[in-house]
Amino acid sequence: MSYFIGVDVGTSVVKSVLFDETGRELHVIAESNTVHYPQPGWAECDMNEVWTAARGTLAQVIKYASEHEYQVDAIGITGQGDGTWLVTAAGEPAGPAIIWLDGRSGEDLARLQGDKIDRAVFDVTGTMLNTSHQGMQLRWLRGHASETLRRATTALRAKDWIFFRLTGELRTDYTDASHSFFDLETGTYSERVLDLLGIPELRRLLPEAVPCYRNTAPISPDCARELGIATGTPVFCGPLDVAASALGVGAVKPGDACSILGTAGIHQLVADVVIREPAYVGYTMHHAPPDTWIRFLPSMTGTLNLEWFLSTIYAPSSLRDERFWGRIEDTVSKQPIGANGVRYHPFIDSAGERAPFVKPTARAQFSGLSATTSTADLLRAVFEGVALSAADCYDHLSGEIEMIRLTGGGARSASWAQIIADAVGAPVEIVGGSETGARGAALNAMVGLGVYPDFQTACEAALQLERSYSPDMEHAYPIYRELLSLYRRTYQAMFPIWDQNYGVTQQQFGGQQLS
After folding, report:
1. Domain ranges within the chain, ordered by starting residue
2. CATH number of the structural domain 3-238
3. Distance CA 297, CA 278 (A)
């Protein structure tokens, strides 16, 4: 039996997970990953803190494997996409990592949108510019932190940083590079994209990009000794967490759909051709299997909406035990479809929204409240708002949705899974195991080492269906179609109001850069 470790560098948590070659989760270690908000609209991570967390979780999992006489054959790494993790020639951070939640480039993005530059970039990359985009963040740094850029020699992402610390290799993979700077027709970095963004001189920062199953190097001798793993153990880097989660639930064939209901809500389709529909929205990137692509619409927030609601309104002082979550599930399931007229728009992050529309000024909101509205109504509305966001995204994606594989923290909620099935009008399936991103990284390592000949074979051998939810097409689905129409009309009407509110807020903070 072969054994593999998958490392997932998440936004709020870093995890290392031990798997056997059949996909079984044998041991999980997690450590918190702190996001710092030094100014309104900014979101950063201390790169050394992230490395310390990853190293700590790896060491504990490797110790567990050794104690049980499991020989670890390889380590696979995935992590949050987008963002800018700058490294100096000495291999040190050039400054804090700007992560995907950051919205500081919002004003710059608005200018590029006004000049249609974002559309020109999309025509090359198949990805619409947003504040999470590394190109936008590099552009902001050039204008506001030029000294940081002068110190930097390479611009990485989260998983690439951990790969570098483990192996000494500065590289990225196709999944991360393709949606940011690739000409998707040639599969190479595009000089035109850099020119459009006005940062051609920063081409020097972009590392070599290779397919994730070939993005490998042996662990360094120093790291091997420190972690207690065999010298020369292969480390594989990629795919990024979106593709890794799709891989980890078996969405690898053209036509497969996957929704990741985590901090963000990411909704994706697998294709064997480059798809740029719908135009001027969302992302297109290489998938892990050769000659496949993922077209996905990443709404800015998913479960973050529920966390905000629970911590500030519904139960700010409650202990989060199984009984608490059981009561949440019971309350949501007993509320009627439509939450007694209450609507919720799930744009809770200060960077606004990026799919199925790009609006840095977008903000979350309840509507339809009355004197009879209860907190149970509001809770149901939050669940439905996130589900309607998913339905909105899938409506914008070309192709019929036959089935959705659901993953992320929100997949643990049976109520949420059923509401999404009813709102989208497609069955929702959940595979066994909770660490799908780390599993995707481990599966990539398995294919890279030749344990399995291809990704489809690996998924068939290593995944088992755990639960499924069928949509109520006669009753619930027609109601949700009406609610989706209201949901869209409401947020579209809010566009100029959000912009005006942003202007007022900016004045209130003395012109500080906001999202």
Report:
1. 3-238
2. 3.30.420.40
3. 10
